[in-house]
Write a structure and sequence with these properties.
With 203 residues, the protein is α/β, with parallel strands linked by helices. It has a single domain, classed as YqgF/RNase H-like domain (Nucleotidyltransferase, domain 5), CATH 3.30.420.140. The chain has 5 helices and 5 strands. It has a 5-stranded mixed sheet, sandwiched between helices.
Length: 203
């Protein structure tokens, strides 16, 4: 069993995801797992739920995540990859990479690892701006962090769809032009104009 590759860029990671269908993001914690989901058109990410699991026990965490992916009818999975601030892989990131590999194997869904070093901090800022209580922040921060992570992926997916649509339109234009050129070649030349009648009055 191999883990999903850790891509150097967000765009490179997103290449493994489908361009349509609901994407699910997972923010993997020791006892709480934040889950966020997109709509089928991959426009908007929304916090979905927080899974409570025994501390650092992989099997219960995997069962809960597999169940969530099935319930939400996921087409692709984004797993937060918590690198350390210097970019190296610590124990939490190694665990995320390992569990992402098992998830992909068990579900058959394309699964990518996305750097999430600052999503929890950003989620805290967002919830403070909404005047969320300490208790509410504690209950919701993991799924809010997952939604922020997923929204960054959706922006990349939107760009991918636009580029794909532009390429398809250009190919269609080229096909139309080529067809018109072929028809012009195949069409017989028009009859040449008849010569003017000869005037014999001067002969």
């Amino acid at each position: 069993m191999s883990a999903p590759p850790v891509a150097e860029t967000l765009a490179a990671a997103a290449e493994r995801l489908p361009l349509t269908g609901r994407l699910i993001a997972i923010d993997l914690g020791e006892v709480r797992i934040g889950v966020a989901l997109s709509d089928a058109g991959q426009v908007l990410a929304s916090p979905a739920e927080t899974l409570e699991v025994p501390r650092n026990q992989d099997d219960p965490a995997l069962r809960a995540m597999v169940d969530a992916l099935a319930r939400h009818e996921a087409a692709g999975v984004v797993v937060g990859y918590p690198r350390q601030l210097d970019g190296s892989e610590g124990k939490p990131a190694a665990r995320a990479r390992r569990l992402a590999g098992v998830l992909e194997q068990r579900t058959g869904l394309p699964t990518v690892l996305i750097d999430e070093r600052f999503t929890t901090t950003e989620a805290e800022r967002v919830m403070l701006a909404q005047d969320a209580s300490r208790a509410e922040r504690r209950r919701s921060i993991d799924r809010v962090a997952a939604s922020l992570l997923l929204q960054t992926v959706l922006e990349v997916q939107r760009t991918r769809r636009r580029v794909q649509a532009e390429a398809a339109a250009e190919a269609a234009d080229e096909a139309v032009a080529a067809e018109a050129a072929d028809e012009a070649v195949a069409e017989p030349d028009a009859d040449p104009p008849a010569p003017a009648p000869k005037d014999d009055r001067w002969h």
